Amino acid sequence: MNHDRLEELGRLIAARVPGLVEEARSQINEAINAAMEDAQERDGGKAILSLAITARWDLDGNSVVISMPVSVRRKFESVGKLDDPNQTQMFQKGGSNE
To answer: Which end of the chain has fewer beta carbons closer than 10 Å to its terminal beta carbon, N or C?
Structure first.
């Protein structure tokens, strides 16, 4: 029984998402333009647009709310690496042997 309900949920989501995309077309285009501008301002930055599609399923009432928020979000990040405390270091800082 759950398998059939999951298949039905998948079909419902697949059927409704194109309508959400169409409804949000202008906002999605605005978000695309903003992402492209941000990428150009950051030399070598990638233009990435994330669209999250969620389904909130009321199991008791059998209703499903499918949503897709669209907004321009600016994310700043930096990647670093921590030393592995379990790894024996062969060199001290500065490159000389211990």
So the answer is: N
d(CA 36, CA 76): 15
- Of the candidates 12, 4, 8, which has an alpha carbon nearest to the alpha carbon of residue 66? 12
Residue 84 amino acid letter: D
3-state SS assignment for residue 50:
coil
pLDDT digits (tens, 9 = 90+) for 11-54: 999 999 999 999 999 999 999 998 888 888 877 778 888 889 99
Q: Kindly give, in sequence order, each residue whose CB lies less than 8 Å from that of residue 74, ignoring residues fewer than 6 positions away.
A: 38
Q: Which two tokens mark 89?
A: 């270091």
Q: How far apart are the first and last CA of the chain?
A: 66
In whole angstroms, give the CA distance from residue 72 to residue 75: 10
Element containing residue 64 per DSSP (H, E): strand 63-67
pTM greater than 0.70: no
